[in-house]
Design a protein that fits this description.
The chain is α/β, with parallel strands linked by helices. It has 15 helices and 7 strands. Strand 6 and strand 7 form a beta hairpin. Helix 4 packs across helix 5 and helix 11 (259-268) crosses helix 13 (284-299). The longest helix has 20 residues, at 345-364. The model has no long low-confidence stretch (mean pLDDT 93).
């Protein structure tokens, strides 16, 4: 009997991840969790040595993060009971978490989406024989335009998504040459917007599931899953609750980026843009002045400057955010991501409960 696939999806911010999550979660047999488990970001190799105390701390951290950020209640005792049935290692912890959420969601096939985790794809593939990996990408100018609109970080930090895009597509091109097509799928945002029927057909074939009619009927998607488990998409330019496919979203960036921003992207991302079929639009006569302006802005932000220096010397990008996404002080509020979690009442309650429960766990094993 064939094992059910375990799906892992990643890409930079604003590559259409929420659209793909919703589409697949509308399938009768699939649920894709959106930043719920966050295994590679929040857990992998962060709780060593793996013993009873650190497993309890890991599960407690997950419980509180889901409680205060997603309104999801989980039972750590059930998960730990499953973990202890097997050899204690990170792979089996991840497997137990997936098993728990598979039962929790009452579906047959589970996957998760986690942004900026493309460097962890080889480990995911090594973990699971039934792994299916989807690596999303989009025009870097569209990524920048969308992220600029949503990011609340100061000092032009939104420009770091350019270096994220370089890193993501560097690895995408590398993995495309390494992994078989039944294991790893590069997924171009523009393709599903232009021809949903064709792209959905290739997607379901890759996952080994039936192509259901509902996948091409976005207005019916949200009746199929729990919004606590799956986020409803938000377009940076068109607002919340944006459903389905729109070729308009492919070129929104043309009306929302300044000339120097477009020039900077086309300069830094030039090589991979060409390989992936994204054409430049900035006139070469205006290029130098605009690039100079963009690099000047980068030079005034130490985080960006370091990313740029790395790129100059190695041609490598970055998989890092300007702020550590595992640090609760970098989290946005549930209802308004532009405001900080730590300033909310929920944030204050989170820190109080975490201090108490973590202390209790540590004292238990003294």
């Amino acid at each position: 009997m064939n094992k059910k696939p375990k799906i892992f999806i990643t890409g930079t911010m604003r590559t259409g991840g929420s659209l793909l999550i919703n589409l697949l979660s509308a399938h009768s047999k699939i649920l894709i969790l959106n930043e719920r488990i966050g295994y590679f970001r929040f857990m992998n190799k962060r709780y060593s040595p793996l013993n009873n105390q650190n497993i309890d701390l890991l599960l407690n951290d997950l419980k509180l993060r889901l409680k205060y950020r997603k309104n999801i209640q989980i039972d750590p005792n059930i998960i730990k009971e499953d973990i202890l049935k097997y050899q204690i290692n990170y792979k089996n912890i991840y497997s137990s978490l997936l098993n728990y959420f598979l039962k929790f969601s009452k579906t047959e096939i589970l996957g998760e989406y986690s942004a900026l985790q493309w460097r962890d794809i080889p480990e995911y593939i090594n973990f699971f024989d039934e792994a299916k990996v989807i690596h999303m990408y989009r025009d870097p100018r569209a990524v920048l335009s969308s992220w600029k609109k949503l990011s609340s970080l100061p000092n032009n930090s939104y420009l770091n998504c350019i270096f994220n895009w370089i890193d993501s597509t560097n690895y995408l091109l590398k993995y495309t040459n390494i992994y078989l097509t039944n294991l790893y799928m590069p997924f171009k945002y523009e393709d599903i917007m232009k021809n949903p029927e064709k792209k959905i057909s290739s997607l379901t074939k890759f996952l080994g599931v039936k192509n259901e009619r509902i996948l091409q009927q976005p207005s019916f998607w949200y009746k199929k899953f729990d919004p606590k488990l799956v986020n409803i998409p938000r377009s940076a330019h068109e607002g919340s609750n944006i459903v389905g496919f729109s070729t308009k979203r492919i070129n929104n960036w043309k009306n929302n980026l300044e000339e120097w921003e477009i020039a900077l992207v086309e300069y830094l991302c030039s090589d991979n843009m060409k390989i992936l079929g994204y054409k430049k639009i900035i006139n070469t006569n205006k290029l130098s002045k605009n690039i100079e302006l963009g690099l000047k802005k980068i030079s005034k932000n130490n985080f960006l400057k370091n990313s740029y220096q790395t790129f100059l010397t190695t041609k490598k990008g970055s998989n890092q955010y300007p702020m550590d996404p595992t640090d609760p002080r970098s989290w946005g509020q549930k209802k308004d991501p532009s405001k900080w979690f730590v300033d909310s009442e929920e944030g204050k309650e989170y820190f109080i409960e975490k201090a108490k429960t973590s202390k209790k766990i540590i004292e238990k094993y003294l």
